[in-house]
Amino acid sequence: MENHDNPAAAKRRARGRPRDWDDKTSQNTIKSLDRAMQVLEFISKRQGMALSAISEEMGQSASTVYRVLVTLEGRGLVEFDPEEQLWHIGPRAFTIGSRFLRRTSLVERARPIMRKLMEATGETANLGVEREGKVLFLSQVETHANIRAFFPPGTLSDMHSSGIGKTLLAQMEGERLARHLAGGLQAFTPHTIVTAEALQADLARIRARGFAFDDEERSIGMRCIAAPVFGIAGEVVAGISVSGPTSRLTPEQVAQLSQPVIAAAEALTQSIGGVVPPPPTGV
């Protein structure tokens, strides 16, 4: 039924989306565009792929994939290396992704806080959020030291083996957390937590002390300390961390270095109008 009593609402709806905007059936899906987006996303996860490999792994005909690639190439979203005969993600994709980052003030407000954190600890500062079950790194301020961690914006990482990932998981409850644990936990190093029971115990410790510690769980020789950033309703919206080599970020320094990390997370929470929820009962 049309809303004759509220013409303003009807006008806003018409400007932004059609009447049947929530209908996701095939009649409202452009199949060729959907296929092109699948190819673009597939290539974005690799460092360069031949047409035959893309076609085989995606289960699409080479001619169909080629037409998609040529179309995307024309818009700068992918590019072709004629010497190696490989397709890569293109510069236009980065430009579009950068506009997503500018949509929110989180990255902008985090930069000065991350720079102060890097200067206070001498280690690389990182900002990440959860996207589709992974940690998406949004920003980084690198240390000036020769040996340092590097997570370029756009990098995706498994949550259970990441300091930021674990600090985000620690704030999740019930079915949401269960979904993250249901698919199994991949081992990246001998130190990776690979059982749900062990991870649950680690998440309880994270909630109690206010920060997460990645002890060579993703990469041998690298450690990370992370703390949560909260939104206006007290929900976790991001994680901020410092990461560095084991030679500098020793277990003995964890307690000391965790304090500026927690302070940076609280400062960013305040900067975006967020609210730090009270600590768990009994802590």
Structural write-up:
There is one protein chain. The protein is α+β, with helices and mostly antiparallel strands. It folds into two domains: 7-94, Orthogonal Bundle (Arc Repressor Mutant, subunit A); 104-271, Beta-Lactamase (2-Layer Sandwich). Helix content is 43%, strand content 18%. It has helices at 7-16, 31-44, 51-58, 62-74, 91-103, 105-121, 163-169, 174-182, 196-209, 254-271; strands spanning 78-81, 86-89, 124-131, 134-141, 156-158, 212-215, 222-230, 236-245. Strands 5-4-3-8-7-6 form a six-stranded antiparallel sheet, with helices on both faces. A two-stranded antiparallel ribbon has the order 1-2. Strand 7 and strand 8 (236-245) form a beta hairpin. Helix 2 packs across helix 4 (62-74), helix 3 crosses helix 4 and helix 6 (105-121) runs antiparallel to helix 10 (254-271). The radius of gyration is 22 Å and the shape is globular. The model has no long low-confidence stretch (mean pLDDT 85). One of its GO terms (biological process) is negative regulation of DNA-templated transcription. Residues 92-274 form the IclR-ED domain. Residues 30-91 form the HTH iclR-type domain. Residues 1-28 are annotated as: Disordered.
